[in-house]
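Example 3.2
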Amino acid sequence: MPLMRIGSDEVVFEGTRILIHARHPIRDWSVREFCRHAIHFRGQKYFLLTSHPSRPPFAACYELAAWPTDLHEESSVSFIYDAMFVARRDAQFRTERRRTATWYALLPLYPVLGLCWSGFKERVLGPVGFEPRSITSASVMLTFCVLVCEGIFYGWLNGGLIVLFTGRSFDWFLHDWPDALLLVVLFADCLMRGNELMQADVTFPSGTLEWLCRRKKQADGEGGD
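Structure, written as tokens:
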């Protein structure tokens, strides 16, 4: 049986049928009984007859049959199978594999990721697969838990988290003032970002203390008007 290589794929010719052993699955191709997708290859028109797993190192085998001359019903979606098509598919597969690996690597940091600012969530975390509002909600809960712990240490044990980790007491105009300041910052951040999450039109909520910059920008804009 004659065969040829199209990029990373192997194409075998069997009379009027073609077997494509694809290195990676072609997700857009599906076997259809009606309204079939036209697949153009080397100037000829085909449709997908069957698909099944292939032998290693190939992931799937697609059997193409010649398009019947009396079949006029077809989908508005068609494909041109060539080296460029295979190259785009392989590039997309590599990109998705990198994103999946990044997603699994960052998953243990899920609540912490929501502390990142909105631009990072939009450019990096969103495309990887992390839903910005979901991770922000988890980070607000994390901030609230830290706030509760800080309040317990500062109010009842006479020493907050900063004193606990540094082993030093910071008494100036207020007892352990860094922990008192931390309490205020955590409370404000939890309140402001939680309130932002309640607004359905906010797609990429703020990260830690980002609301300070946003309010400053809004104030500058109103002042300029």
